[in-house]
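Supplementary Note 2. Why include the ligand at all?

Several targets in our set were suspected to adopt different conformations when bound, so apo predictions alone were not considered sufficient. For every target with a known small-molecule partner we therefore ran a joint prediction. The input for zinc ion is given below.
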Amino acid sequence: MLAQLALVKPLEKRWPGEKVFLDTEYGANPEKAQFMQNFAAIAKRFGIDPPDVIIVKPDVDKSEKPKPQKPDASIGWAVIDGKFHDIVFVSKNIKNGLNDKELLAVVAHEMGHVVQVNATRHNPHLSGKTVESDADKSALSCPEVDPTAFKSMLVTIEQLIDEVAKKHPLLYGDFTGSMAIIPASVQTKMAFGGNHPMTSTRIKLADEELQRRNANHDTVEAPQQAAPQVQSVTVQVVEKGDCRNLEESSL
Ligand SMILES: [Zn+2]
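The joint prediction is reproduced in token form.
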């Protein structure tokens, strides 16, 4: 299903471009069944409903040429009949640049943020020194998330951001405001950093989890039960119009 969501302004600014639900792409593909099962298992582990994962294609210019896109992921939510529906946004370049295990690591990190915003009753200004490292810890606590894939995900995303920053330095103007004097590689660190710990610190965390699993001889058990159907309730409601309650948290 293709969805052109009518997002509220801040979300539309951050996530312009055509949106596609991951479950419509992956859920229909038997080869992606393991991914969907792991995704549902992580949500269950976190005590949340599986969020709607939306892949956002780059926005296009007047001649339909794709504009440069920041490799990015964040969460949002819509209030529908008084119930929160969580959404994970992932840029198309991240989705295309990662394998399924790495994509699962990204989505698990974002689901870690979903747990955090649930705990704050969906305060869109979730902040604090540890929100990012806590989201990493949540993701890595899931046996479905491979710490090695988590590490390669970090490295690949940093490369993707660096490529885009070098090609389109102005894209990161909102981070620094003075592109001319700051090299792309430094901007990349700032853009990628945000509140995230340094990549080396995040890799260390994944290494610690790897060591812990090896010491415990943990093996990843595939979930036995069939994955519950991930619902696309958000798009149905949003497409019909009222999305004033759609909010995001930049995480
Ligand atoms: Zn985050």
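The CA atoms of residues 102 and 152 lie 7 Å apart. Confidence is low (pLDDT under 50) at residues 176-180, 227-245. Comparable summaries for the other entries are listed in the accompanying table.
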